[in-house]
Amino acid sequence: MTDTRANIHVPNPDAPTPLEAARLTGGARPEDIESLRMQAAVYVYEVPVRVWHWVNALAITVLIVTGYLIGSPPPTVEISEATNQFVFGYIRFAHFAAAMVMTVAFIARIYWAFVGNRHARQLFYIPFWRLRWWKELIFEARWYAFLEKEPKKYIGHNPLAHFAMFFFITLGMTFMIFTGFALYAEGAGQGSIYDQLFGWVIGLAGNTQRLHTLHHLGMWAIALFAVIHIYAAIREDIMSRQSMITTIISGWRTFKDDRVE
Amino acid sequence: MATTPNGFDLDNSGKRIVVDPVTRIEGHMRCEVNVDEDGFIRNAVSTGTMWRGLEVILKGRDPRDAWAFTERICGVCTGTHALTSVRAVEDALGITIPDNANSIRNIMQLNLQVHDHIVHFYHLHALDWVNPVNALRADPKATSELQQSVSPSHPMSSPGYFRDVQNRLKQFVESGQLGLFKNGYWDNPAYLLPPEADLMATTHYLEALDLQTELCKIHTIFGGKNPHPNWLVGGVPCPINVDGTGAVGAINMERLNLVSSIIDKCTAFVNNVYIPDVIAIGGFYKNWLYGGGLSSQACLAYGDIPEHPNDFSADQLHLPRGAIINGNLNEVHEVDVRDPEQVQEFVDHSWYNYGEPGKGLHPWDGVTEANFELGPNTKGSRTNIEAIDEAAKYSWIKAPRWKGHAMEVGPLARYIIGYASGHEDIKGQVEGLLRTMDLPVSALFSTLGRTAARALEAEYCTRLQKQFFDKMIANIRNGDSSTANVEKWEPKTWPKECKGVGMTEAPRGALGHWVQIKDGRIDNYQCVVPTTWNGSPRDSAGNIGAFEAALMNTKMERPEEPVEILRTLHSFDPCLACSTH
Amino acid sequence: MAEIETFYEVMRRQGITRRSFMKYCSLTAAALGLGPSFVPKIAHAMETKPRTPVIWVNGLECTCCSESFIRGAHPLAKDVVLSMISLDYSHTLMAAAGHAAEAALEDTIEKYKGNYILAVEGNPPLNEDGMYCIVGGKPFVDQLRHAAKDAKAVIAWGACASYGCVQAAAPNPTQATPVHKVITDKPIIKVPGCPPIAEVMTGVITYMLTFDRLPELDRQGRPKMFYSQRIHDKCYRRPHFDAGQFVEEWDDEYARKGYCLYKMGCKGPTTYNACSTVRWNEGVSFPIQSGHGCIGCSEDGFWDQGGFYDRLTTVKQFGVEATADQMGIAAAGAVGAGIAAHIAASALKSAQRKKQDSEEV
Ligand code: HEM
Ligand code: HEM
Ligand code: NFV
Ligand code: SF4
Ligand code: SF4
Ligand code: F3S
Ligand SMILES: [Mg+2]
To answer: Where in this chain does the record put each Cytochrome b561 bacterial/Ni-hydrogenase domain (chain A) (predicted)?
Structure first.
C-alpha cells in the first residue's frame, strides 16, 4: 500500500535534524517530514478506516439515543393492546441492532490494524514510555488553552486526540461492548452463547443493577467524547496547519504551510 | 440486698444460673438469675446479645426507602416497622393518606397481630406448658371428648383424628430423632397437663403451623409477599380496580373475596382453637401466678388502628393509648411522644456511648454509638462470658423510660390500659374471661395474664379486621378507589428540614420511630421498640426493666432446668432483633 | 445408625399407604419440575435414608428466613420437620434452651459427623471480636465455624447469609460478613432473598434429600433451578414493558390497569429470583402483582444500589450523589459551556492575529 505520492520526498536543505517532534508522535517517517515543507498530501486513512469511522459514528449515535431512552423511557403511549404494541421493544431492538453493528465493525477495525497502514494502528496503543509524546501532549493542550501561538503538524492524530481516542474509544468502546453484552446475556439466558462469553462480567460488577449503572455512565463518557471530538475536528480544520474533515472523508492529509516544525 | 426505685429487692448472693441462648424467641438473648436455697429467683439480668446498627445505616438515605430498611428489623413482626416508618415520614412531610389506604394498612396490621399471636402461642410459647412426649400416653377418645367440650364448633375433633396425630408423634419420637423436641425438659415436674390436654395442644401446634401459612396471605395480597410485604409513603402500593380493564394485579373482586375468606379463617381458628386452648391450658396452671413484674404498676401503650386516616387522636384509635404508673389503675395518663420529657432512652447499662453518665435523650435527638465494654466483675473473658457484670454495661438494648419510669408494653399493657380507661370491647373481653375462669382481676398481672391478654387481643383484632374490610368495601361502593396520595412524592416538594414521629401497637407493644429529615435525606432515625422497653437493662437510678422484674421471686422446680424462666420470658414474646435493631 | 428409620418407614408407620407415598413422590417430582421418570428415584431415596439432621444457626438477622420457611405450603413445614429432616438445633423453634440446647448441638455434630446439613440464617459480624452477635457468651462466628467444620454442606439462607443484607448496608457498622467469606472449605448453597420464597427453601432441601446431591449452582453459587432467570424474564407485565406502557405515578390509571412498574423503580430487570414464576405464599401474589416494584431483595448489595423508586440508581462518588444521567447532563452542560467559551476565545484570538498580521505587513 502506498501512502504518499512518488515525487514528494525531496530533501529539504533547511530542515533541522533530527526533526524529532513530528517523527516520534505524528507517525511520520523522515521522508514524510522532509516533504512537510511542501503543500503536499499524505494518504493517511485508508478506505476501511474511513468506512468504519462513519459506520461507527452512526451506530454510536443510535446507541446513545436508544440507550438514553432505555434508561428513561418516553411517556406511556396506548396505541393498541400491549401484545400488539412494541414501542419500547423497538427502541431496545434498535439498541441491540446498533450494538451488533458497532461490535462487528470494531472487530473488523481491529483486524485492519494488523493489515492496514501504520496509521490504522495508532488508535490501539499509546506510547506511554515516550517522554517526547507526553511533552507534545502538553504542548497540544497548551495550544487549546491559547498558550501556544501555533500548533504542530501531524500526519496521524495529534497526541491529545490520540490520547482521547484511545481512552474513550478503544478502551471505552471495549468497556461498552463487554458490559453491554453481559446485559444482553441476561436476556439471552443463562447457558446462552452470550452468557458463556460475557456472563462473568456480571460477577465482576457484583450485581446487574450496578452493571446497568456502569454501562449507563459509559454512555455519557462516549457522548462527551463525541461532542468534544466533533468540535475539535471542526476547529482544527479551521485553525490548525493541516486538513481534518476532508482527511476523514477522502483519506488524504494536506498542509497549509511549508514550515517543518 | 438492694431495693430498686421501682420496688424490687435484688439479691445476687444465691446460685447464678445462666440461660444462653434463650430459645423460642426471635434473636439472641441471654438471661442470668440468682436463685436462693429454696429455688426462688432473687436477682434477674436480661441481656440483648445482638446489634446490627440500623439507625446508623439509615442516616443519609431517602426517607421513602426507610420502611424497607426498618421492616428488616424483624421478620417476625414483619410489616409493623414498615408501617411505623411510613407514618413517621408522612408525619414529617405532612403527607395525608386516602381512606382506603388507612383501611388496608389497618387490615394488614391487624392481620399481623392475629398471625403473630397465634404463632407465638403455639410455636414459641406452648412447649413451656405442653409436653408433647406426655401426649403419647393420651387416650384419643378422651382427647376427642376434651376437644368437644372446650370447643364444640371445632370440626377436627374425632378420636380417629387424634389417634392419627398421636401415631405420627409416636413414630416421630420412636425414630430416635427427636428434632425440635430434643433435650426438652419433659420430665420436669413443672409440666402439669394431663396427657389428653397435651395431645390436644400438640395437635393444635401442628394445625396452627399449617394454618398460619394461610393467614399471612392478606399481606401477600396487599403487599406482594410475607414475610416483608411492601409499603408506600403516601398510601399503599396496591391500586384498587373493581370495574375497569386490566384489573389483574390490582385489588379486584377475586382478591377481595380471598381477603374476606382469610379473615373468616382467622376468626374461626381464634374462636374455636386459640381462645379455648388458652382457657383449657390456663385452667391447669391457675395456681402458677408468677411473672407479674411491672404489669401491675407501670404500663405504656401508644395506641393504634385509627378509625380515620391521618387522625391519631387517642379517642379515634381502636387499640388504646395511655400510661399507668405507680400501680395506680385509676389514672390513665396521656402520652405525648413528641414531648422531650416523656420518652427518653438511657445507656448507662447498655453498650452505647452518650459521653455523659445518667443522660437521657428523646429519640428525635437520639444517638446510637456502639461501645462494647464489659464490667470489671465479669466472669470469663471478653469473648467468652461466663457471668455478666450487671453493675456495668451489660446489654445491646438501650433503656427507654417514660417520665423516668421503666414500663411494660405489649398485649397485657394494652389490655390493662384499655380496662382501666373503660374501653368497652376490652373490658367486656377481660371480664368475660375472668368470669369463665373464675379468677380475680389481680390474676391478670402474671405470666399467664400476659398470655391470655394476647389471645383476647387476637380475637378482638379478627373482629376489627372484618370491620375495616367492610369499611373499605363501603368506601369503594361509594366510588372512592384511591389508594395513594402522590402530591408530595417528589423530594422537591419537601421542606428543607422537618421531623416526624410514627407510632403503632406492634404485636409486642408500643413501637415508635422518630425521624429527622434534612435536604431530602434522613438526618437522624431512632426506633424505640416494644422489646427495647420490656427487655430494657437497668437505668442509672437502678430501675429494672419488665423482663427482669417479671422473673423476680419465681420458684424454680429445678434451677438447672429453666422452664419457669422460659415461661415468663416467652410470655412477653421477646424479639431481640427488634429490641436492639 | 440402625435404629434410625428411613423416610419411607416413618411415613408408612404414620399410616401413609404405599399408594399415597408414591403419589407424594410424584408430587415432589412435579414440584421440582421433574418428569415422571424421576418418581421411582425419589421413592427409592426416601425408602433408604434416615432423616437428615439439620443444624440451623442464626447470626445477625431478622428471622424472616425462619418465618418464611414455616410458611411452606408444599411440602408443609410440618411435614418437613416431622418426616423429611431432623431439625436438631434451631433457636427459633427448639424446646430446649441454654445448656440443654448447646448439648443438642454438640450431640448432633458428634453423632452425624460429615452427614448433617448446616443451615445458616443471618451472618457473623466481625467487628468487636464478633461480639455484636453473642451466643452462649461467645461470638457467633465461633459457633458458625464449629458447626461448619463437620457439615456435609452449608446452606446460606437469605440475603443475610448469602450477601450480608441490611446490616451489611453502608457503612456496615458491625462488619457483618456473608457466610462464604468465613467458611471457605465447604460447599455453600446460597438461597438469597429477603427472605427467600418458602417453597424455594423447602425445594432446595427436598432436592438434596431426594437426589442425594447438591443442586446445580450458577456462577454466584445459587441453585439454578430457582435463580437462573430474572423477575423481568417471566414477569406477567412484560408485554406492557415491551409496549412502552408504564405506570407513571402511584395509583394512576396505568397502575390500575397493571402496566409495567419500570418507571417506578422496579428492579425486576436486574434481579434473579423465582418470584414471577413460583410466586409467594402458595402462589397468591408477588411484589409486582401487588403493585409495588421489585426492590431486588435477592441481589448482592441491593440496599446500596440507590433508591428503591429510582430507575436509574444514584452513584455516590467524591462526595457527590447523582444518577448517571444527572452526572452526564451536568458534564454535558459543562462541556457545552466550555466549547462555547472556547469558540468565542478562538474567534477572538484569530481576529487579534489577523489584525497583528495586517499591521505587520
Ligand atoms: C457506545 C455504545 C453503547 C452505549 C452508549 C450504550 C448505552 C446504553 C444505555 C444508556 C443503556 C441504559 C442503561 C440503563 O440505564 O439501564 C443501555 C442499555 C443496554 N445496552 Fe447499551 N450501550 C452501548 C453499547 C451496547 C452494546 C455493545 C451492547 C451489546 C449488546 C449493549 C446492550 C445493552 C443492553 C442489553 C442494555 C439493557 C437493555 C435493557 O435493560 O432493556 N449496549 N445501553
Ligand atoms: C460529524 C461527525 C464527525 C466528524 C466531523 C468527525 C471527524 C473526524 C476526523 C476529522 C477524524 C480524524 C482525526 C485526526 O486526523 O486526528 C476523526 C477520527 C476519528 N473519529 Fe470522528 N468524526 C465525527 C464523528 C465521530 C463519532 C460520533 C465518533 C465516535 C464516538 C468518532 C470517532 C472517531 C475515531 C475513533 C477516530 C479515529 C479513527 C482512527 O484512527 O481509526 N467520530 N473523526
Ligand atoms: N419488639 C418487637 Fe417487634 C414486635 N411486635 C416490633 O416492633 O418483634 Ni419482632
Ligand atoms: S435475608 Fe432478609 S429476610 Fe432473611 S434474615 Fe436477613 S434480613 Fe431477614
Ligand atoms: S414490572 Fe418490573 S419485572 Fe415486570 S416487566 Fe416491568 S420492569 Fe420488568
Ligand atoms: S423484591 Fe424480592 S421478593 Fe421477589 S419480586 Fe423482587 S426479588
Ligand atoms: Mg433505637
So the answer is: 44-249
Hey, which of B300, B575, B576 would you mutate to test ligand 3's pocket, going by the most ligand atoms within 8 Å of its Cβ?
A: B575
CA nearest neighbour of B255 among B225, B222, B211, B216: B222
Q: Which of B169, B177, B174 is nearest to B199 (CA)?
A: B169
Residue range B409-418, pLDDT digits in tens? 999 999 999 9
Ligand 6 pocket, C197 CB below 6 A?
no
Strand pairing partners for C57? C120
Question: How far is Cα C283 from Cα C200, in angstroms, rounded to an integer?
Answer: 12
Indicate if ligand 5 lies below 6 Å from the C-beta of C260. yes
Structure ipTM = 0.94
Give yes or no for a contact between A174 and C214, defined as CB atoms under 8 angstroms apart. Answer: no
| C151-157 and C188-191 strand pairing | parallel
Q: Check pocket membership of B506 for ligand 3, CB cut-off 6 A.
A: yes
Phi/psi at B536 (5° precision): -55, 140
Q: What's the rounded Cα separation, in Å, for the pair C59 and C168?
A: 13
Q: To 10 degrees, the CA torsion angle through C215, C216, C222, C223?
A: -50
Quick: pLDDT tens for B515-536: 999 999 999 999 999 999 999 9
> For residue C352, is pLDDT > 90?
no
C244 three-class SS: coil
Best CA proximity match to B56, nearest among B520, B515, B512, B525: B525
What SS3 string covers B272-296?
HHHHHHHHHHHHHCCCCCCCCHHHH
- pLDDT value of position A152: 87
Beta bridge partners of B90: none
N residues, chain C:
361
Given its phi and psi angles, is residue C139 left (phi above 0), alpha (psi -120 to 50 degrees) or beta? Answer: beta
- Angle B253-269/B195-215 helices, nearest 10 degrees? 170
How many Å lie between the alpha carbon of C297 and the closest alpha carbon of chain B? 10
Q: Hey, which residues does B518 pair with through a beta bridge?
A: B497, B521
Containing B480, the helix (H) or strand (E) segment is: none
Cβ neighbours around C153 below 10 Å, total: 16
Evaluate if residue B345 carries a pLDDT over 70: yes
Of the listed ligands, the closest to the CA of C286 is: 6
What pLDDT band is residue A3 in, cutting at 50, 70 and 90?
A: very low
Instruction: List chain A domain ranges.
Output: 45-149+156-237
CB C56 within 8 A of CB C119: yes
**For a pLDDT cut of 70, what percent of chain B falls above it?**
100
- Across residues C80-84, what is the average pLDDT? 91
Superfamily classification of domain A45-149+156-237:
Transmembrane di-heme cytochromes, Chain C (1.20.950.20)
C255, B250 Cβ separation under 8 angstroms: yes
The Cβ-side half-sphere exposure at B553, using a 13 Å CA radius, reads 14
Grid coordinates given for B123 = 410455636
- Find, among B255, B257, B249, B326, the residue nearest to B294 by Cα: B326
- C197/chain B closest Cα distance in angstroms: 9
Using alpha carbons, select from C249, C257, C245 the residue that is nearest to residue B484: C249
- Say which residues have a Cβ less than 8 Å from residue B432's Cβ, sequence separation at least 6: none
* Distance from the Cα of residue B471 to its chain's centroid: 26
Interface contacts A/C by beta carbons within 8 Å: 139
Taking only the tens place, the pLDDT of each residue in B109-153 is 999 999 999 999 999 999 999 999 999 999 999 999 999 999 999
